[in-house]
Amino acid sequence: MVAQTGAVSSPLGNFALQLAVVVFFGTGGHLTFFRAVAASYEAVPLLGFPSPGLSRSVLELAVGATAKMVLAAVGMAAPVLAALFLADLALGFINRVSPQIPVHFLGLPAKALGGIALLLLAVSAVAVAIRGELGDAMGAIRRLVESGVARVR
Predict the structure, then answer these.
(1) Are 43 and 148 a contacting pair, CB within 8 Å?
(2) pLDDT tops 60 at residue 73
(3) Which of 17, 29, 98, 131 has the fewest CB atoms within 10 Å, counting from its CB?
(4) 87, 103, 76: which is closest to 16 by C-alpha?
(5) pTM of this prediction?
(6) What separation in angstroms does the CA of 63 have from each of 53, 56, 57, 110, 129?
(7) What is the pLDDT of residues 78-122, one digit of tens each?
């Protein structure tokens, strides 16, 4: 069970969530988030309207952030998918050469262990990449909000 959400999750999913929380707090993401929320109230007061130029820069930031997120997700998933594809190819070859071996029952734990091993090898690289991307994203949000505050004043 995941303590933060109360949902049932696998141990690997729970580890990934805990890693994301540690990286977020380790990079100072919580402080940047609070600064961005405070600056957003300065840029657009509760009863005020945003400036017209601000909406275009917000749209450009959203599209750019989405593109970076998709590229990061594909970049993190591609090595695991390639390794699992190669494992399936090897197991299929073994099954073709020797049909007496129960490849399906032997292949499932082998693929699971291979995926976990690859994840453990890649965890440090993923943490560094997430830290850099999170810092870039928070900096872009800070610049956007600060430019909005400058236009409103």
Answers:
(1) yes
(2) yes
(3) 98
(4) 76
(5) 0.49
(6) 16, 11, 10, 40, 20
(7) 777 888 888 889 888 888 888 888 888 888 888 888 877 877 777
